[in-house]
Description:
- It is built from eleven helices and nine strands.
- The chain is α+β, with helices and mostly antiparallel strands.
- It starts with 6 loop residues before the first strand and ends with a helix.
Amino acid sequence: MNHETITLALTAEASDDGRKQWVHLMPSGTFYGKDRRGPWTLRKPEAVIEASRRFAGLNQIPIDYEHQLVNAKTNGKPAPAAGWITGMQARDNGIWALVEWTPAAAAHIANREYRYLSPAFTTTKRDPNDGGDVTKIVHAGLVNTPNFDQLTAVANAQENQDMEKQLEQLKTLLGLDATADLVAVNAKVETLLSTAANAANPDPAQFVPIGAFQQAVAEANQLRQGITKADAEAHVATHIASGHIAPFMKEWAVSLCTVNKQSFDSFVAAVGPSVVRIITPQLGDRRRSAGGSANENLTETELAVCSQMGITAEELIKARGANEGTK
């Protein structure tokens, strides 16, 4: 017997969510009590919910202990509330109620001192004990010996509710929509397990050796340290004008800057104007004999500079002459 799910709130008051619980209040279809009273039939749960709401008016529907609301007329004992019904739903298996339990009742249920719910209702017959169609629910009792065994136990309902919360949390962790069913949850878990297994046993063909990767990164970083030729020429010209390098070193300096500017700057910072003083004699009128070879016209220090810079003695002598001509 299928019904469209609806919810009718009897009141809208805030409460401690830890003491709120959906419980099975009335079975669907035709049912008997364990004492063979009945049969009763729940034909239109939506209409029963609406009639129950109207009967309660502005009040919440009470839940007592052991139907003391009825028994108080004969035994004269108090009838404290165990909880209050704040909403109802029509589901496939009957009517469910959203109950706000009192702290004492919540403790009883948690300790399994009370486990079942028994509804008190009216029917189409003058005496509800004779059966008939259910017309409205007037209250309910928290009991341990229910007459209806078709209802889900309150304690079991709490366990189911806890499981539903855990399932909602699992969906969130898996990145699934709240409407996802168990099939989708299982599929997502299997996908994650498969991914984890592949990560633990990677396919070598899909990965680059770490050594080769590190070398490629190092080479790429080295290339990124260079600058354009135009920027290199401007950078070198500044250092020539300030006397940090000699004019004849321009071509070498520009080449180095375009590949690795940082290396060139480190060279200038470490050597500075001293390289110019070494390759350019302090005595401007000093001349080499025309008959000797170029190597003979240079000092050992100057020859060492030629070797380090990768230039010939003739190039150094020519550059020195040009440098002296600018003084």
